[in-house]
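Entry 14. Ran structure prediction on the chain below.
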Amino acid sequence: MEKIPVIHVGIQFKESIEFTLHGAHTSNAGIALNGRYKVKRVKGGLELSNGHDRISLPSGSLIKPQDNDAFFTLHDVTIGINFHWERDEDQSFKGALKLLVDKDLINAINVLPVEDYLMSVISSEMSATSSLELLKAHAVISRSWLLAQIQKNENIKQKNDEYQSVFESDTEFIKWYDREDHHHFDVCADDHCQRYQGITRANTPEVVKAVRATWGEVLLYDDAICDARFSKCCGGMVEQFENVWEPVNHPYLQAFVDNERNPEGFKLDLKKEDNAEKWMRGAPVAYCNTNDHAVLCQVLNDYDQETNDFYRWKVSYTQKEVSELLAKRTGIDFGIIQDMVPVERGDSGRLIKLKIIGDKKTMVIGKELEIRKALSESHLYSSAFIIEKSETNGEINFTLVGAGWGHGVGLCQIGAAVMGAKGYDYNAILMHYFRGAELKRKY
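Output, structure tokens:
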């Protein structure tokens, strides 16, 4: 059996950072530290001050706890970056604190064993009161995703390839957002990777039980760890990996209806506009089509429950609003927006490419997250939407009628919660969302 991996999680990135060390800690230079500190950049590295002492440390210094009860708190950590519930909060962490300078910002990085990380991720991504089978399923996919990303990063470094995720021309801007921009740590702590809030969000006995019950278990396909993705709500149809991220086909991340049988009255080729429109205006039967508050509370933390729209939703803009929004969010001067036209859809109806027609410029943008970022002050719930145009007093109005919350690839958290409530065990949940994969214990 392999050893339990130790991982580096990027938490905070600021010009100066304040933290409190609870219990005895020591830097890797042997300096004893305890209490509250402010760290700032100085020539040659970092300076820690606590109001009376100033301590110089080189960039990349590691501050380690000296007993099992010691932990550290980072103050004013931004969570939900660019989402509707973005806010700052103090967060506490077990393990070591690494401080380094990168591009004029101080990076605060938590170094800890992967199983300790998972305790927090499961509690941060969803309610710690979720059903045991759902928690076990999430432990497996979170562990699998993390270890797959570390392996992917190592492969990129070994090949010495420059990872490309942007394709740009005069008429097209296509970009996908993955975790390839993290150079000094394995994953970040926000929704860009997996939501991780240390020990701030309490681990319940059920979370501890779920991690221990699946200790070291990962999803495998052809002996490789699966890049196991998940999102809040697929909207009734799970999306295919390459329609959202890099053009690589993973056989275990394919498109299918989030149910045991196809819903009646719908044509499921959602790449076609007519079929996509009927799908998004309708409410097809699916695991994730639920208003059961007890089930939703398992997946949606307090700030996620600030909205009740996720399976089907609407957003409306005036012509002036959408013109200003697109200019602000893309940095492109389209002028006055005349139209938005779907160019290409994925299997779930999510837009891969969208043509934006302005009186100054016409441009095709994609992939799904680029579209979501362009058409909202934070993020649209998903890129699975159709566009309604109407006119009032000579001005065009645009209404987006959409489905789902998130990219829709892999496990649908709300759908999985419903499956757990229906009595499915974690293996059945995993095999529903990651078809052809198998479970195996790595350590």
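The longest helix spans residues 132-159. Will compare against last week's run tomorrow.
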